[in-house]
Specification:
Layout: E1 11-14, E2 17-20, E3 31-35, E4 38-42, H1 47-53, H2 63-72, E5 80-84, H3 90-99, E6 104-109, H4 112-126, E7 133-137, H5 140-143, E8 149-155, H6 163-169, E9 170-180, H7 183-196, E10 203-205, E11 212-215, E12 218-221, E13 231-236
Parallel strand pairs: 5-6, 5-8, 6-7, 8-9
Antiparallel strand pairs: 1-2, 3-4, 9-13, 10-13, 11-12
Helix pairs in contact: 2-3
The structure holds S-adenosylmethionine.
S-adenosylmethionine (SAM) binds near residues 58, 91, 155 and 156.
Amino acid sequence: MHTITLEVGKQFHTHKGILDHDCLIGGPDGVTVTIGTTTYLALRPLLPDYVLSMPRGAQVVYPKDSANIVGMADIFPGAHVVEAGVGSGALSMSLLRAVGEGGRLSSYERRQDFADIARANVERFFGGPHPAWTITVDSLQDALAETDVDRVVLDMLAPWECLDAVSKALRPGGVLCCYVATTTQLSTTVEALRAHGTYTEPEAWETLARGWHVEGLAVRPQHRMVGHTGFLCTARRLADGVEPPVRRRRPSKGTYGEPLTEAAPDPAGAAAPKQPKPPFRPQLP
Ligand SMILES: C[S@@+](CC[C@H](N)C(=O)[O-])C[C@H]1O[C@@H](n2cnc3c(N)ncnc32)[C@H](O)[C@@H]1O
């Protein structure tokens, strides 16, 4: 696949030959063009195509995860959303699409070079500056001064460092959504949210998207897939002064690292008689 921006009078060169941009400009989407002996389909890129081919500073949020963030964090038209970091701007584009021109996306990125790449990517995709978007080049926890924010989305190494700032910004009932790459980050994020005391019990998950090969009788999962991208975690801001309800299901023994004790060895050296396994009973909430 090639992604090109059409410009009057310009040419696109491949090892197969040359394509004049003018033969596509003004024409419909979904036509074929022949370069040398190869026929190509010409289509405007969808947002997922664009994100996977645009210049990158930092690693992007993959389209399957952006879709999940927009859906599960309930990003709605007109919402005021805070996002950090911006990286290459991939997630920013999905968030801007979801809030629309009547919403607000306030993005924070601590690196100027990444903010510049993101701005160029976003402006190229939307054909100019998006009216709902601002970028602040700073660390979110130092710069965030907004209040009554509907949603906060964090894609960064250490989202737990931002929880104080985020809980001042989010309105009661607002959603915080964190996207992290490793299990250790996920664990630290969830435990920090619980310990903070201003959020509901966090929910964590990952999304695996497996393509299918569908042809005649050969209908089966594709052999290859993107095995891991990241984990998502959401929690909602409680109203001020409200204590999070006590969790009904207590963590099982050893969950928080208490020493696990083994049964004392039999002094006579005889093996302890095997206890029958208790019947399986599902844990009901
Ligand atoms: C993985 S990238 C974000 C990718 C982006 N969501 C995308 O889809 O293109 C993580 C970014 O967070 C920025 N960052 C890390 N901690 C930050 C903080 N506390 N405040 C603002 N930006 C931060 C980093 O500089 C980096 O650009």
